[in-house]
Amino acid sequence: MDLRDNQGLLDTGTVYLQADNIDMKPWFTRWLRANTGLESADFSLAAWLQVQNGEIAGGHALLKQGAA
């Protein structure tokens, strides 16, 4: 985290997240799950989120590895 204090709150800056071996299949739409025949969709990812005034203002995500 690289958040700055703005009027007493850490509400502006960048947050870094990393997750390994996440099952992404539940996040897919019902149509995609039903029509692709995917049995699994496991990925590792990293994300950088830009926060402004306590709200997510943008970000970048990197899928590092995975299989579907």
Q: What's the short version?
A:
The chain has one helix at 30-36; strands spanning 2-6, 9-23, 42-52, 55-67. The protein is mainly β.
Task: Walk me through what this model shows.
InterPro entries: YhdP. By secondary structure, this protein is mainly beta. The chain has one domain (2-67). Helix content is 10%, strand content 65%. It is built from 1 helix and 4 strands; from the N terminus they run ββαββ. It has a 4-stranded antiparallel beta sheet with strand order 1-2-3-4, with no helix packed on it. A hairpin with a 2-residue loop joins β3 (42-52) and β4. It is elongated and about 50 Å long.
Summary tags:
1 helix, YhdP, 10% helix, 68 residues, elongated, mainly beta
Low-confidence stretches: none
Q: Please give the order of strands in the largest beta sheet.
A: 1-2-3-4
What is the CA-based Rg, rounded? Answer: 16 Å
| Gross morphology | elongated
Chain-wise SSE layout:
Elements: E1 2-6, E2 9-23, H1 30-36, E3 42-52, E4 55-67
Antiparallel strand pairs: 1-2, 2-3, 3-4
InterPro entries: YhdP
